[in-house]
Structure formats: structure tokens, C-alpha cells
Amino acid sequence: MAKVVFKTDNKTCEVEDGTALIECSEELDISLTFGCTEGTCGVCEVTVVKGMKNCSKLTEEEKDFLLPEDIENGIRRGCQVNINRGEVALSWRKNRAK
User: Fold this and answer.
1) What is the DSSP letter of 96?
2) Nearest partner of 8 among 66, 49, 56, judged by Cα
3) What is the pLDDT of residues 40-85, one digit of tens each?
4) DSSP assigned state of 85
5) How far is 85 from 66, CA to CA, in rounded Å?
6) Rounded CA gap, 56 and 29, in Å?
7) From CA 49, how far away is CA 46, in angstroms rounded?
8) pTM of this structure
């Protein structure tokens, strides 16, 4: 089992190894917003604060759309991330209510 810490919402959950971040986010009603779910729009941008090695590898979409310095700083597209094992802590910017 893997553990995901959603720092922005102060929530934690345990998931099966290999679970897609989008799945556990929806189950917990996390405030992280998803747009296209293909890694191109950037709506679901997250920062992996802890446990980058426990996440899936960068996808080609992420490599195409993220800047090298963003990647270096732990930024990922949430819709492209699987939690492979261990603990992963994430933060993101909340979208303003309209």
C-alpha cells in the first residue's frame, strides 16, 4: 500500500501501489482540479513535495509541456501521476471560486 498526503487540503489516504492520482483525488473529494486529463492543459499541476521516486516516471506529455526548471522543482501534471509505492506528499494552488 502507498500513502498520499494532500497537503493543500490537509487530507491523507492509502492506496494500492500503482493507483492513478486522479482516482484517489476524486474519491476523497480533493480540491485539485483536473481539466483535459491528457497532460496538456496544465490545470492539474501539482508539486511533489516528498516522494518523487515513489511516483511514476514523467510522461512524454509532461516533458513536452513542463519547463526543465519546473521538473527540477518537482512539478508534475496530476493527471499523469501514478503513486507506485511508499509515501508521496503533494501541494497545489487552489483555483479561485467564481
Assistant:
1) P
2) 49
3) 999 999 999 999 999 999 999 999 999 999 999 999 999 999 999 9
4) S
5) 24
6) 22
7) 9
8) 0.91
